Amino acid sequence: LQRLERITGRMPVARTVAILAPFLGSRQQVRAWLHNPHPDLGGQSPMSLIQAGKAEAVADMLDAALAGQPL
After folding, report:
1. Number of neighbouring beta carbons within 10 Å of residue 39
2. Phi and psi torsions of 60, nearest 5°
3. First to last CA, the chain
4. Is the pTM of this model over 0.90?
5. Phi/psi-derived region of residue 36, left when phi > 0, alpha when psi is between -120 and 50, beta in every other case
6. Residue 68 region, left (φ>0) first, then alpha (ψ -120 to 50), else beta?
7. Were 64 and a residue from 3, 45, 46, 69 both cysteine, which residue would form a disulfide, CB within 3.0 to 4.6 Å?
8. The dihedral of CA 36, 42, 44, 48: what is its sign?
9. pLDDT of 13-71, one tens digit each?
């Protein structure tokens, strides 16, 4: 994840990891979540959106999940 943080900017990736780690349990599971398409993101992966400068879409989804909506 360190290389990805340098590519995409540290804050969106670091925030995403910090939110997901307690729920997913391991770095490997967080990495898988970041790189797999997600239906709530229009079938795009969270990382692809972060790299495209659309980290807010990922943040919004995570905020909704923290409010009780499923990931």
Report:
1. 7
2. -60, -40
3. 20
4. no
5. beta
6. left
7. 69
8. negative
9. 887 888 888 889 888 999 999 999 999 899 999 999 988 988 888 888 888 888 887 65
CA 62 to chain centroid: 8
Q: Which two tokens stand for residue 21?
A: 């780690």
Tokens 């349990």: give the residue.
25
DSSP letters spanning 9-66: -HHHHHHHHHHHHHHH-SHHHHHHHHHS--GGGTT--HHHHHHTT-HHHHHHHHHHHH
Contacts of 54 (CB under 8 A, 6+ apart): none
